[in-house]
């Protein structure tokens, strides 16, 4: 028979293990909410998000992310360098970005992928209206919700 003291010790140990496992799962989910792929050696401050064969998001630091078009034929376009949120479909890339590096003020953009035409909006209201007019049914997502390469 297990003594009362031993049962208490086992119970306490079980609670500690349960707590540590729960905290670990929570921390992983917080940093990677959709259980997205994380390539080796990537971090929140150094990764790429592949949109398609020509477009990608490059993150070089905690505050510096850019949407890039590169066709490997010398055509290289950077659409913004302070990207906060992004999303895309077959026709468009949408994003929000900081107006200034240490600002919290956001502006918005829509990139038409086929023509590489970009339109910027200084207010969320304008951005939402244009999305509606173009039939874009995307919502902006945090960069951490996508696969990192």
From TrEMBL:
<keyword id="KW-0812">Transmembrane</keyword>
<feature type="transmembrane region" description="Helical">
    <location>
        <begin position="12"/>
        <end position="29"/>
    </location>
</feature>
<protein>
    <submittedName>
        <fullName>Uncharacterized protein</fullName>
    </submittedName>
</protein>
<keyword id="KW-1133">Transmembrane helix</keyword>
<keyword id="KW-0472">Membrane</keyword>
């Amino acid at each position: 028979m297990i003594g009362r003291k031993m049962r208490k010790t086992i119970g306490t140990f079980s609670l500690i293990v349960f707590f540590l496992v729960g905290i670990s799962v929570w921390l992983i989910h917080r940093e990677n909410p959709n259980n997205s792929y994380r390539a080796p050696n990537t971090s929140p401050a150094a990764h790429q998000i592949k949109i398609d064969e020509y477009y990608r998001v490059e993150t070089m630091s905690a505050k510096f992310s850019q949407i890039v078009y590169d066709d490997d034929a010398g055509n290289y376009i950077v659409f913004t360098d302070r990207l906060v949120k992004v999303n895309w479909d077959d026709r468009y890339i949408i994003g929000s970005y900081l107006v200034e590096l240490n600002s919290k003020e956001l502006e918005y953009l829509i990139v038409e992928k086929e023509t590489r035409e970009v339109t910027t909006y200084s207010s969320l209201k304008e951005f939402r209206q244009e999305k509606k007019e173009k039939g874009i049914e995307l919502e902006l997502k945090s960069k951490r919700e996508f696969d990192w390469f």
